[in-house]
Amino acid sequence: MCKKPLISKIDSARFASVVMEIENLIRNSDKECLIIGIDGRTGAGKTTISKFLHLKFGGNLFHMDDFFLQKHQRTPERLLEVGGNVDYERFKLEVLDPLLRRETVHYRPFNYHTMDFDAAFARDIPPKRLNIIEGTYCMNDYFGDPYDLKIFMDVKYKQQIENVIDREGTAELDDYIDKWIPKTDLYLDRFHIQEKCDITIDFSTEE
Prior knowledge:
This protein has helices spanning 9-14, 16-28, 46-57, 76-80, 88-100, 157-168, 173-190, 193-196; strands at residues 34-40, 60-63, 105-107, 110-111, 116-117, 123-125, 130-134, 149-154, 199-202. It is of the alpha/beta class. A hairpin with a 4-residue loop joins β4 and β5 (116-117). The radius of gyration is 17 Å and the shape is globular.
């Protein structure tokens, strides 16, 4: 039986412009620590492109989904804050700051379903030159601008809903439509995320 290739031809074509930008960055930059940020719309392929780039280039890969808000942080004020849906304080302290100091990153993913830390999956990640950070809110102004390349993942609404269903099923679809997608869109608009990015990929366009 033929195995499905780890890097598909569709993704290779769709992400070719990003690959070229990263190759140029690796070749021409004299920085010891390069950080790639991938932000964008819900269901727009942020995780897909991050895994593709990680397979292509190696380095370290970090997910904002590991930094859900802890129970004590879920105050009415925090839940109303634009861009406040993740533990950005812990992400900066445990990931970004050590990366920039070229130190080993230590953190525990926070599990949204159990509302607790996944101690069994604690991460100890030694410094590497290339580091990819993916997920909505990774370009929150709270972080300043630590990124050497910023990628915006876009998707048309119909495709977005189809992608959410493929990923999550339909049980939480109403929550995505009524709450999570609007919160994400408000953050993207308020912080002008797409305008700040170096490159935009439309994940709704099939090659």
